[in-house]
Amino acid sequence: MTEPVTSTEARAPWVARAVPYLPLGLIAALGASLAYVVRLPCRTGGWNDQVTTYTNFCYTDIYPLYFDRALDTQNPYFAAVPFDKQVEYPVVLGEVMQVFAWIARALSPDKVVQAVRFYDLTVILLGLCLVAGVLLMAAVAGPARRWDPLWYAISPAVVLAAYINWDLVAGALSMGMLLAWKRERQVAAGVLLGLAIATKFYPLMFVGALFLLTWRTGRWRPFLETMGAAVAAWILVNVPFMVFAWDGWRRFYVFSQERGVDWGSPWLFFQNKGWPILGETDVSTLGMVSLAIMCLGIAVLTLGAPQRPRLAQICFLALAAFMMTNKVWSPQFVLWLVPFAVLARPNWRPLALWQLAEVWYFVAIWLYLLSQPPLERDDLGIGDDTYFTAVWGRIITIGIMMAFVVRDILRPEKDVVRATGVDDQTGGVFDGAPDRFTLASLNR
C-alpha cells in the first residue's frame, strides 16, 4: 500500500526552491529599510523647508505631490484643478496614488498627518516592490548568478534613490515580465509589460529588444502573443480614463511632449554653455534624432553580431540609449537601469564605477539646487561646472558599460554569463534558437 503524502512533504520541494532566495529577500528588505532611514530628516518635518530638504539629501516627490496634485481633497485625473496640476503619471501610478490617498484621508482629518501617512503607505509599497524586484531578478538570473541581484538590493545608489518617486513599481513589473518571458509564458509576459508601460513609459524600450531578437530567430508567434497581451492590458487600464477623464489622462503625454530640457540631461549642459546646434536646436527633436541613431546602431549590432545577443544585453543598451538622450535624467532613473545593467554584464568593476558616479550625482543635484533660484544659497551649494562633472560622470560611466556589453556581443567568449555554459538565461524562446535572419545572410 502506498503511504499518503503529508502536507509537509508536499510542500518540501517548494520550500527547498524558496530557501536560496531568503537571504536575498532579507538583504533587499534591509536596503528598503535603509532607504527609509535616509529620508528620516525629512519624514520628521524637514519637507517643509527646502534648504533642510536639500542639505539632508532627503527629497521625495511623494509628500509634496499629496498637496500639489490635490490628493488631499480629490482623485487623480478627475480632479477639478488646472491642467498643469493634474497628476503627470500614467494611470497605474495614478491609481496607486488614489488608493493610498483614500486610506490616508480615512486615517486622519489633519492634512499634514494625511500627507505623512500617504508617504508611509507609499514607502511600504515601494519597499515591497524592491524586495519583489530583487527576488524576481534572482529567478531570472538563474542559479549560477543568483547573487548578482545584490547590486539591486542594497547598492548605495539604489538606497539613495529608492523613495524619490514611484519607479520601483515599474521595476517589479519589468522583472516579472522578464521572468514570464524566460519561462515562455507569453500572455503573462505581455500583461506585465502592458502594465509596466502603463506605470512608467521606459519599459516600452523592451518591445524593440524583443522585436530585434524575434527578427533574428524567426520566433514570431511568441512575440505576437506577447505584444497582443501587452496592448490588451494597456488598453484595459487606460480606456476608462480616456473616456471619462480625458484631460486628466492626457496630462502625462502632453507634459512629456512639452517639457523642456531639465536636470541631469546632457542637453542642459549644451544649453548652459551655449553650444552651437546642440545648445540651440529644439530638445525634443535632438532627443528623438539621437535616440533613433542609437537604436539603429543597436539594430545593426543585434542582426550583425556573430552570435545572437542575449535579451538582457539588448534591453540594457536600448534603455541606456533612452536615458542618455532624454530631456530629463532624474536621480531615480538609476532604478530603471540597475537590474538590466547587472543582467547584461555582471562585472563588478564597471558597475562599481557607475554606482560611484550615480552617488556623486545624487549629492550634486541637491547641492546645485541650493545655489539656484529661488534659494540662491551659494554658501551651501555648488556651481554649474561642479554640477556638470556629475552629469558627465553618469554619461561616461554608462557609456563605458555599454562599450563592454557591445564587446561581449561581438566577442561572445568574453561574456561572463555565457562562460557558465548558458546561452541566454533570460531568452525564453530565444535561448538556443538558431538564426533565421542576420545581416550576413543578405550576402549569401
Throw out a few tags for this protein.
444 residues, mainly alpha, 65% helix, globular, disordered N terminus, cell membrane, transmembrane helix
Oligomer: single chain
Main sheet attributes: strand count, strand direction, barrel closure: none
The stretches of 5 or more residues where confidence is low (pLDDT under 50) are 1-11
Counting DSSP H or I runs of 4 or more residues, the number of helices is: 20
Report how far the terminal alpha carbons are from each other: 65 Å
**Structural class, judged by helices and strands?**
mainly alpha
- Helix-strand sequence: HHHHHHHHHHHHHHHHHHHH
| Mean pLDDT level | 93
| Beta-strand residue fraction | under 5%
Bin the helical content: 55-70%
**Based on DSSP secondary structure assignment, what is the total number of beta strands?**
0
List the helices and strands and how they pair.
Elements: H1 7-18, H2 22-38, H3 40-43, H4 50-55, H5 62-68, H6 91-107, H7 111-141, H8 150-154, H9 156-161, H10 167-182, H11 186-197, H12 205-217, H13 220-244, H14 246-258, H15 266-273, H16 283-304, H17 311-324, H18 334-344, H19 348-370, H20 384-410
Helix pairs in contact: 2-7, 5-7, 6-7, 7-10, 10-11, 11-13, 12-17, 13-14, 16-17, 17-18, 17-20, 19-20
Transmembrane segments: 20-38, 121-144, 150-179, 191-215, 227-249, 283-305, 311-330, 351-371, 391-410
Keywords: Cell membrane, Membrane, Transferase, Transmembrane, Transmembrane helix
Main location: membrane
Could you explain how this protein is built, in words?
- By secondary structure, the protein is mainly α.
- It has 20 helices and no strands.
- Helix 10 (167-182) packs antiparallel against helix 11 and helix 17 packs antiparallel against helix 20 (384-410).
- Mean pLDDT is 93; it is low at 1-11.
- Belongs to the glycosyltransferase 87 family.
- It is found in: Cell membrane.
